[in-house]
């Protein structure tokens, strides 16, 4: 009997001991660490679905523990590195619930920061900003400067990815100051690289390069291959933008090699996108497109809309360059839809620019005009948004000064109350009157001294804030001028683009018509002349010598046009191999002479296409006065003029190329020898000039029955 009781008691004690062990926090932490190690193995093996399932089970299990585990953040970082952002959000929500229940505010703020990072990777920017603001409130309350800096860094990245580049600089620079004060090398380097991204987006490439170099120098003596790889890739992208293609390939390849030694699959995919673009630019198109498609597959599977749109943009640009306009339009349309859904104005402008070029190349000018109208509205909205942001920043600075004055007045009121109380006490007792009077006098003198010191400090702060605001306004003004220059110039030839023409042309037409009606000038040079110039057989150049040779011909052709025409004439890169020239303060009688001078100069010019090779080209020209007949409405005047010069250009090509055809003037009286051009555009009659044998020898694009 005693033996049986002993056995039962021993068994009970063993079960109780086992329960105490498994229920202890130490045992739970050890078990959680083991589960995280299993999930890490699944992620390394790219068994993502199994890893996601185990992560969700971990979150549910950890949530049931009495004491929240520290493993939440370790697991969340692993999932983010492997681009499993949906799973990381589930784990972090469990962490948020557990730490909120325990009242651990620092961990709550950290969970909110990680949630903001995951939502930002999925392009859910509104949700990300909400999490980050909540995290910042807690960090400020707890006075945790380093955590505030990490949140500011993430907030700056959110603004940058939405295209709000000027607004992004404020939190990024605030974060950089804190990181440097705390000797946080990796965070400082990351912050510098993101500031470099801002200046790259604004096409301030020298400043961008400076920040990237500083970022790489800061991290180069560490073992942080992930950050070094990211920065080298960004340097390569900037070099590619500056047309330093071989140097860019070396930088990007080096960055990708560093990243491949890490587990950051998202950064690896971004590097492949940049490498794909570089390979296409250097002629290795099959390998480049293969890398872009591989990156597209990964980005779509992981839900990273931003990466998907980066690939779409690269593919659309490539197909536009290859003159596969339907494919370029398809990718641009998909990217435009996503950019609109996310409210990214700069993203919309990039995809609309591709649609505009493709539509012009396909000859769909009505659609091109519609797209141009949308682009103009978006540019105005972008500038308006940036001006509003600058105004809000200024108002915030003024509000800070105002609050400082309010605090000063409250302090003065407080001192008056204290002085009154002291005065009442002096009345109640004569014994302390003398001593209290002396003390009061000393207090008032000290108070006046402190007040004067405070006033000096406040004046200095106001002056510094004013200087900072002036510097910021100057910086923004330079950025706006840079953006304006980029938007009005063709990047290859340096000539004006059609946006500039459409901003200048209405007033020029109005001026010309007023001068004609009033006969203002005595020289007769009050006409606007329009010439549409096309390089003959340009596609053969690309096919025989490559697109780099074609680009050199376009650059040389632009230089020839600058020699032929005046500085006051508007020389426009219209699209592809077509150029449009609008001559101001000219006479219509000069049209044949201008056209022949342009044709002859091009035909006699030797074009350098690289590798010590040269070729000669010819051009065909269609011209007209602008407008060809009396039209009051600008849109109708410009549309009619462009249709006439385009029709004349096409006739010049059909009639043998290397020549010109155009309308010098139109008449209000009908004659018996009307041309096909008169019939097509319903002119009663017109005076036509051509470099071919005679008007009868012109082969018009379409014969119109009389």
From TrEMBL:
Keywords: Coiled coil, Signal. Pfam families: GGDEF, TPR_12. Residues 1-28 form the signal peptide. Its EC number is 2.7.7.65. The keyword Signal applies. GO terms for biological process: cell adhesion involved in single-species biofilm formation; negative regulation of bacterial-type flagellum-dependent cell motility. It comes from the Bacteria. Its cofactor is Mg(2+). This is diguanylate cyclase. It comes from Alteromonas hispanica.
């Amino acid at each position: 009997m005693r033996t049986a009781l002993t056995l039962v008691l021993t068994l009970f004690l063993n079960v109780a001991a086992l329960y105490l062990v498994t229920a202890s926090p130490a045992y739970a932490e050890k078990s959680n660490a083991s589960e995280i190690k299993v999930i890490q193995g699944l992620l390394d093996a790219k068994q993502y679905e199994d890893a996601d399932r185990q992560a969700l089970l971990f979150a549910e299990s950890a949530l049931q523990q009495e004491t929240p585990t520290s493993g939440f953040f370790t697991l969340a970082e692993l999932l983010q590195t492997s681009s499993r952002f949906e799973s990381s959000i589930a784990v972090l929500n469990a962490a948020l619930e557990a730490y909120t229940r325990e009242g651990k505010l620092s961990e709550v703020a950290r969970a909110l920061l990680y949630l903001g990072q995951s939502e930002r990777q999925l392009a859910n920017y509104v949700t990300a900003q909400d999490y980050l603001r909540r995290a910042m409130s807690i960090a400020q309350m707890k006075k945790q400067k380093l955590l505030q800096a990490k949140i500011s860094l993430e907030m700056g990245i959110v603004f940058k990815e939405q295209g709000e580049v000027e607004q992004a600089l404020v939190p990024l620079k605030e974060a950089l100051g804190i990181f440097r004060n705390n000797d946080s090398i990796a965070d400082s380097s990351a912050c510098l690289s993101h500031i470099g991204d801002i200046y790259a987006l604004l096409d301030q490439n020298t400043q961008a390069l400076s920040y990237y170099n500083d970022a790489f120098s800061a991290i180069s003596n560490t073992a942080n291959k992930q950050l070094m790889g990211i920065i080298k890739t960004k340097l390569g992208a900037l070099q590619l933008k500056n047309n330093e293609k071989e140097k860019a390939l070396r930088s990007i390849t080096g960055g990708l090699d560093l990243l491949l030694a890490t587990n950051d699959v998202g950064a690896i995919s971004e590097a492949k996108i940049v490498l794909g673009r570089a390979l296409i630019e250097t002629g290795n198109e099959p390998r480049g497109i293969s890398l872009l498609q591989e990156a597209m597959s990964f980005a779509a599977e992981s839900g990273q809309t931003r990466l998907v749109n980066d690939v779409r943009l690269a593919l659309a640009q490539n197909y536009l360059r290859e003159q596969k306009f339907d494919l370029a339009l398809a990718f641009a349309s998909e990217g435009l839809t996503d950019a609109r859904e996310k409210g990214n104005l700069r993203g919309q402008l990039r995809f609309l620019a591709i649609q505009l070029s493709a539509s012009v190349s396909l000859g769909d000018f009505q659609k091109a005009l519609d797209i141009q109208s949308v682009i103009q509205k978006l540019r105005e909205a972008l500038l308006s948004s940036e001006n509003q942001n600058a105004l809000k920043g200024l108002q915030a600075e003024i509000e800070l000064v105002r609050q400082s004055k309010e605090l000063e007045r409250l302090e003065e009121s407080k001192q008056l109350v204290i002085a009154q109380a002291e005065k009442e006490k002096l009345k109640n007792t004569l014994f302390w009157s003398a001593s209290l009077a002396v003390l009061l006098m000393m207090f008032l003198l000290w108070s006046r001294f402190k007040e004067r010191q405070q006033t000096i400090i406040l004046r200095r702060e106001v002056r510094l804030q004013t200087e900072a605001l002036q510097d910021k306004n100057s910086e923004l003004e330079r950025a706006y001028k840079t953006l304006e220059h980029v938007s009005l110039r063709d990047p290859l030839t340096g000539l004006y683009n059609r946006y500039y023409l459409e901003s200048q042309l209405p007033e020029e037409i109005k001026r010309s018509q007023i001068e004609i009606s009033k006969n203002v000038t005595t020289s007769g040079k009050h006409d606007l002349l329009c010439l549409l110039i096309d390089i003959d057989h340009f596609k053969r150049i690309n096919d025989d010598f490559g697109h780099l040779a074609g680009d050199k011909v376009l650059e040389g052709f632009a230089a020839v046009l600058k020699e032929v025409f005046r500085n006051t004439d508007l020389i426009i890169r219209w699209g592809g191999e077509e150029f449009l020239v609008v001559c101001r303060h000219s006479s219509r009688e000069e049209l044949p002479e201008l056209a022949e001078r342009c044709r002859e100069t091009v035909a006699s010019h030797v074009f350098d296409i690289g590798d010590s090779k040269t070729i000669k080209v010819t051009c065909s020209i269609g011209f007209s006065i602008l407008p060809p007949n009396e039209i009051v409405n600008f849109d109708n005047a410009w549309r009619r003029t462009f249709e006439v010069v385009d029709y004349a250009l096409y006739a010049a090509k059909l009639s043998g190329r290397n020549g010109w055809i155009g309308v010098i003037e139109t008449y209000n009286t009908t004659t018996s020898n009307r041309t096909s051009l008169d019939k097509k555009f319903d002119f009663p009659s017109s005076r036509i000039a051509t470099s071919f044998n005679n008007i009868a020898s012109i082969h018009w694009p379409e014969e119109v029955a009389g």
